[in-house]
Amino acid sequence: MILDELATARTGDKGDTLILAVFPRNKENFDQLVAEVTEQRMAEHFGDTITGPVQRTVLPQLPGMVFRLPGVLGGGVTGAPTLDGHGKCLSSYALLLPLGITPPE
Hints:
By secondary structure, the chain is an alpha+beta fold. The protein has one domain. It is built from three helices and four strands, in the order ββααββα. The longest helix has 8 residues, at about 40-45. The chain has helices at about 30-35, 40-45, 90-95, and strands spanning about 5-15, 15-25, 55-60, 65-70.
């Protein structure tokens, strides 16, 4: 199972830091997602593009989580030699994160 099956995501930028918000498709899955989608898992998923510690803010009232992934945008909008300096396409990549959750039958 991948994150996309239980959540949706939106991304934005702050300099070369990717801001990634993850929202469960169903509120019932929120606690599972908080347990599964950690700073460490997200850092491993994005790999060598990370230049510092990943930070996660859990927002149970929404429900949702916001991750700060430093360095992923390689210089940001004005400094990155990529087509997606804002990181909008990276929400799709984040949703490919494998989860250790068994899908219901």
